[in-house]
């Protein structure tokens, strides 16, 4: 068999056509084939040419015809060719992975930007009526919300069976205060207003806190000492 025909007789038929298509489309596969040719060609150069007897060719053709009759997928030639192709592809893939540089993926940081303007709201700041006007209580409500957020800073505890009741103080002199409800017995929390803050607080430029029985004043007016008082401000 001549050296010039060695490459052309490696694969035949559909396997050869398929491999040629891969060679045309895959640059890495072409590199693998070129490397193997560079290794094997020098070995073939030292082997003298030998023409096989005619009976050998007849036997080969008969075996190929028998294999083709039994089905393409049972062809030994096909699986040998496929093995060579798979080996070359695996080698190319391993080489590519070995040469690939590790990649550093940067995860974007999410930064929350505070709003430039405060939402329309009511804010009350109350100071103790004694002890040097110390800040003891703050409250906040969105303009259209019926929840009043409250924080007890330094009111202290009410006497047993008593609690703190919050009052709205009208702007007009002589008008009675109006109860806004009993404060929660925790450092901070919420209390429900009768309506949205724009209805419940709009007529009260100031708020006050008094000590009342646990269920609240029974007269509709403060009955115990007023322990805190301060302005109720609008922010809009």
Q: What can you tell me about this protein's structure?
A:
By secondary structure, this protein is of the alpha+beta class. It has 2 domains: 3-99, no CATH class; 121-235. It has 5 helices and 8 strands. The chain has helices at residues 13-25, 27-45, 54-70, 76-99, 197-200, and strands spanning 121-128, 135-142, 147-152, 162-169, 178-182, 188-192, 206-213, 226-235. An 8-stranded antiparallel β-sheet has the order 5-4-7-8-1-2-3-6, with no helix packed on it. The radius of gyration is 46 Å and the shape is rod-shaped.
Helix count, per DSSP?
A: 5
- What is the helix fraction of residues, given as a range? 25-40%
Give the overall silhouette: rod-shaped
- Based on CA atoms alone, the radius of gyration comes out at 46 Å
Segments where pLDDT lies below 50 for 5+ residues?
1-9
Strand percentage lies at 15-25%
Number of domains: 2
SS elements, strand count: 8
Major sheet strand order:
5-4-7-8-1-2-3-6
């Amino acid at each position: 068999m001549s050296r010039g025909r060695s490459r052309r007789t490696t694969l035949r038929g559909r396997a050869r056509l398929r491999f040629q298509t891969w060679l045309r489309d895959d640059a890495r596969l072409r590199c693998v084939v070129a490397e193997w040719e560079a290794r094997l060609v020098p070995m073939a150069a030292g082997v003298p040419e030998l023409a096989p007897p005619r009976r050998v060719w007849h036997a080969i053709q008969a075996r190929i015809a028998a294999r083709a009759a039994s089905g393409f997928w049972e062809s030994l030639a096909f699986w040998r060719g496929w093995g060579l192709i798979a080996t070359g592809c695996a080698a190319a893939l391993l080489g590519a992975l070995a040469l690939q540089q590790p990649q550093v993926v940067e995860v974007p940081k999410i930064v929350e930007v505070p709003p430039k303007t405060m939402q329309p709201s009511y804010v009350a700041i109350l100071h103790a009526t004694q002890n040097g006007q110390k800040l003891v209580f703050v409250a906040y409500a969105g303009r259209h919300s019926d929840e009043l957020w409250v924080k007890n800073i330094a009111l202290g505890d009410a006497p047993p069976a008593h609690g703190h009741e919050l009052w709205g103080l009208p702007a007009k002199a002589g008008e009675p205060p109006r109860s806004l409800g009993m404060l929660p017995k925790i450092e901070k929390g919420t209390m429900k207003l009768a309506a949205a803050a724009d209805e419940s607080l709009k007529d009260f430029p100031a708020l006050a806190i008094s000590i009342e029985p646990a269920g609240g004043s029974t007269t509709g007016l403060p009955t115990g000492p007023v322990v805190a008082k301060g302005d109720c401000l609008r922010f809009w």
